[in-house]
Amino acid sequence: MVITDPVLLKGRDAVDVLRQAVAGGATMAQVRWKDGTPAEILELTRALVAALTVPVLVNDRVDIALAAGAAGAHLGWEDPPLEMLRPHVPAGFLLGISVGTSEEAARAPATADYWSVGPCFATPTKHDAGAALGSEGFAALARLAPDATPVIGIGGITAANARSIIDARATGVATIGAVLSAANPEQAARALRQAIS
Question: Whole-model pTM above 0.85?
Answer without folding.
Answer: yes
